[in-house]
Description:
alpha+beta; Lipocalin; eight-stranded antiparallel β-barrel; 8 strands; disordered N terminus
Amino acid sequence: MAVAKPLAPFPPRTFLARHRQDELDALFATLPAPRKNELQGDYQGTLLGISGLSSLPGVIKSGLYRLLASWLNPWQGKHFDASNGANLWGLGTLQGAWGQYRIEDRQDSDALALDYDVEGNPALLRPILGEVRYFQDALYLARMRYRTRRGTRTLLYFTLQETR
Length: 164
């Protein structure tokens, strides 16, 4: 079954980065989930929709997101391999993977889940739950959520684009 293309093409760094987190929440709810085996290999990540930044003036928020998209941010994206994955990190020639997750199709969500509650992760990472949905043409919109006893909260959104 092919994944429906929900939106006309938009440049993701301009279209998505201009939206508040509540607007990204609403958009995310409308997007289809990829299949578990659809994501394979390395995907470049771009941070956006960080909790707390929506209230900042646009010029400051835009500057912070440009900084996060530069070489100063060591998070580069994610690697997917069958039913597991890891975050890709690096500065210059120092490259590595850290923060493993299990890839799951969940009954309680229409998103593909990235569950960090896996052996080997430190306690701080284990409550993290990533969720991924298809946005457009090999581009995915994803969010990082944090689970506590009081509930689950979205901390940020990011895009994932396959690297070739």
